[in-house]
Write a structure and sequence with these properties.
Helices cover about 45% and strands about 15% of the residues. It is flat.
């Protein structure tokens, strides 16, 4: 179960006690407050708090007060200009705080984005729940033959069944031993901070993660990409839906220029100019390595 009964009760209590505010609010984001969006088999993301909206980005860019006489169309044009020219500071005026429940191995990838404030559930003080990420059968795949850090074709038949059984049995056996070590019935019991070392990487942890919009966009550009690992990508996809409701103009510009755009090298631009002139360009006369040329071709073909 993604949310515990205690967490559900806390959310319901908060939802039942709304308060008026004088600060700017995003109606799209307000709809996400106190809602948990389920991810994977036991995980979720939920918005705890946020600051700012599309207007706050424009306000910071203009160094003005209030909305003034600028139209929505002007605001959207300004946001697209800022995104197009990599002016990041105005986007830092917006922040979001998320409560995330995720497998430990996903958290280890996630924490590499060192531009956020994080407070994680502590297994030194508390006992972790018996909840493990077990992949769906269609996510069990062999090692990729072209990417050393990716997966290839899906496992099938008896091999897939065998792998799933190993994952389930190893997870439960490790947790059984964890419980046995920390138990104080008839023994002193091992300290929780030591017993946790025996738990597998697919056990779930939780944290609060607070980040500004500029750095969130950087996270999403990498982790919502089709090449990102599936288990972190589904979290990024869930966050994308929230951000699209929170700051629709900014997210639209991000989707267009960052997710839908391409970052081309000088050699790639030179090849495009030559192609437009009718010149035949090949990998051999492009000045690119085989890998660069393959990626360049993929961008051109979409």
């Amino acid at each position: 179960m993604p949310l515990t009964p205690e967490q559900i009760a806390e959310i319901e209590a908060q939802r039942a006690n709304p308060r008026p505010t004088l600060r700017a609010v995003s109606e799209g984001m307000e709809a996400h407050l106190y809602k948990a969006h389920e991810v994977l088999d036991h995980g979720f993301i939920r918005v705890i708090d946020y600051m700012g909206d599309d207007a706050a980005i424009c306000q910071a860019a203009r160094v003005s007060y209030g909305k003034g006489t600028k139209s929505v169309q002007n605001d959207e044009g300004l946001i697209r200009y800022l995104m197009r020219h990599w002016h990041s500071t105005p986007f830092e005026m917006c922040e979001i705080k998320l409560h995330v429940k995720l497998p430990v191995f996903v958290a280890r990838q996630w924490i590499r984005h060192r531009t956020a404030n994080v407070n994680e559930y502590s297994a030194r003080y508390s006992i972790l729940d018996r909840e493990f990420y077990i992949p769906a059968p269609d996510q069990l795949a062999a090692q990729s033959v072209v990417n050393n850090q990716g997966r290839g074709v899906a496992l099938e038949g008896e091999e897939a069944v065998r792998v799933l059984e190993i994952l389930k049995s190893d997870s439960n056996r490790a947790y059984d031993n964890y419980e046995a070590m920390i138990s104080d019935e008839g023994q002193a019991g091992l300290a929780r901070e030591l017993a946790r070392m025996n738990l597998p990487m697919n056990i779930y942890t939780q944290w609060y993660w607070k980040v500004d919009l500029h750095n969130l966009f950087h996270f999403l550009r990498l982790r919502a990409d089709s090449h990102a690992q599936y288990e972190i990508r589904v979290y990024a996809d869930a966050i994308c839906k929230v951000v699209a409701d929170w700051v629709p103009a900014a997210y639209g510009a991000f989707e267009d220029y960052r997710m839908g755009g391409a970052n081309l090298s000088g050699k790639a631009m030179d090849c495009i100019r030559r192609m437009l002139k009718g010149e035949e360009v090949t990998q051999e006369n492009s000045g690119m390595s085989a890998g660069e040329w393959r990626e360049f071709q993929a961008e051109l073909e979409g």
